[in-house]
Design brief:
- This protein has a domain of 160 residues.
- It contains 8 helices and 6 strands; from the N terminus they run ααβαααβββααββα.
- The strands form 2 sheets. The protein has a 4-stranded mixed beta sheet, sandwiched between helices. A two-stranded antiparallel sheet has the order 3-4.
- Helix 5 packs across helix 8.
- The radius of gyration is 19 Å and the shape is globular.
Length: 241
Amino acid sequence: MRAAQKSLDNYASENVDGWVLREQPAAIFRDGRQAPVPLLAGSTNDEWVVGYDPPADPDSVESYKAWMRQQRFFEHADVMFALYPVESDADVRVSFLSLSADDAGQAAYFMARDMTKIGQNSYLYYITYPGKFKGMTIGAYHGIELRFLAGFFRKSRWGEPTEADWELANTMRTYWTQFARTGNPNGSGLPEWPVYDAANNLCLEFGRNIRARPIPHLERYEVFDRVFKARLAEQEQARRR
């Protein structure tokens, strides 16, 4: 399943079966009934850069608009098209990848916000460290954090890991281990990872440098949220009929 494309659909689509999922997870989080546990979540700067695969993914203005109407946003497609516009087929890849990256980012952001509302600490990350593929430097693609957390770089694809690669891997594993142990990723010698707070909206960037920074693209995330809430309300109304 394509996480970058499907996060909003998984959160709000017609998949409640009364057994595995008794109700929409979205409604549970909205109402503050989720499990009260600390959260560590995030996304990458270039989520779908290595997964973009036309014609399964849109590569023309026509297919881009159709994808928005039929698979994602339905009657709200015009709102999202205005947020990620294209004027020609040549624009589609950039806008589609931008939308996909923001889709993953907004899912992590709103989950952190919802966990904070029930008194749980949340820690958001944003990865900008560029991956490598067969000698070429590419973007911070979906799942790149798993390379560093596992400490495994397949040389046939990544190439020979550099000192910087290993340094980031060791740092990330230290954060994640500390979080698993205590519910707080911070520890001695690590750059401070700020707990999520709506007053400052900070995350920790894992890039060439590790630093706290404002969460990117929040103004776009709010549009996702409005569309998402409208779709959830429509589904709940349909079930009551």
